[in-house]
Specification:
This protein is α/β, with parallel strands linked by helices. The protein has one domain: Alpha-Beta Barrel (TIM Barrel), CATH 3.20.20. β4, α3 and β5 form a beta-alpha-beta unit.
């Protein structure tokens, strides 16, 4: 005779392996190390942060529950090697870890765009974790989980979105204090309409920072068109 705990355990085991998805689409990777590669983007729904410069607020709510098998099949149908799992904040859904692992097992080149507010320890080491450290100008500086920095490897990347000269100086100090550039690539991006891109580039060159300047290629090509 089954006990209540055994029955509840069996029910939990029977739950479908699924994630809430905002969109899956093929485009060019617009930033970070794989910029320019045709890439399938899997955008998960939901995010606990509310950054001032967020350009994907439409992913905060809604979405559609999709079985991981169906997600995997749609990714495969696009026929490219690069996959980026993004959000929202993808790690706010625990089953994201299983999707990442399955994509790696299938031989995809996988990157994860994460806010840095959630522990990245469980992410498959084959994934390139693109960790977004929140500057004061983001309004979410207090959410940075600094212990994540100790987990970074050369396979990972760290991104700062710079909203002002004060943000730049803050980010410069964080990079130096934690020697992030000695762990992995560090990327500085200008926040759209808040910092002139040429101005940020000049600051980096003047200070000879060991970071990479980047702009969002997809924004240059397609502005804010959804699914691009």
């Amino acid at each position: 005779m089954n006990t209540p705990s055994a029955e509840s355990g069996a029910a939990a085991a029977a739950l479908p392996d699924r994630l809430r998805i905002t969109e899956i689409f093929l485009s060019l990777q617009g930033e970070a190390r794989d910029a320019g590669w045709p890439t399938v983007f899997v955008r998960l729904t939901g995010c606990p942060l509310r950054c001032t410069y967020c350009d994907t607020a439409y992913a905060f709510h809604g979405g559609e529950w999709r079985d991981v098998d169906a997600i995997f099949s749609e990714v495969a149908a696009h026929g490219v090697r690069h996959v980026c799992v993004t959000g929202g904040e993808p790690l706010s859904q625990k089953r994201c870890l299983g999707l990442l692992r399955r994509l790696c097992d299938a031989g995809y080149v996988v990157s994860l765009e994460t806010s840095g507010a959630i522990d990245i320890a469980g992410v498959d080491p084959r994934v390139s974790r693109v960790l977004d450290i929140k500057t004061p100008g983001s309004g979410e500086e207090a959410r940075n989980l600094w212990s994540n920095l100790e987990l970074l490897t050369p396979h990972d990347q760290v991104k700062f979105v710079v909203c002002s000269r004060a943000d730049y100086e803050w980010a410069r100090e964080v990079v130096a204090r934690h020697a992030i550039h000695q762990r992995c690539d560090v990327l500085f991006s200008p926040s759209k309409s808040e910092v002139d891109a040429r101005e940020l580039a000049d600051w980096i060159v003047e200070d000879r920072l060991p970071v990479r300047f980047q702009m969002q290629l997809h924004k240059i090509l397609w502005n804010d068109e959804p699914g691009r």
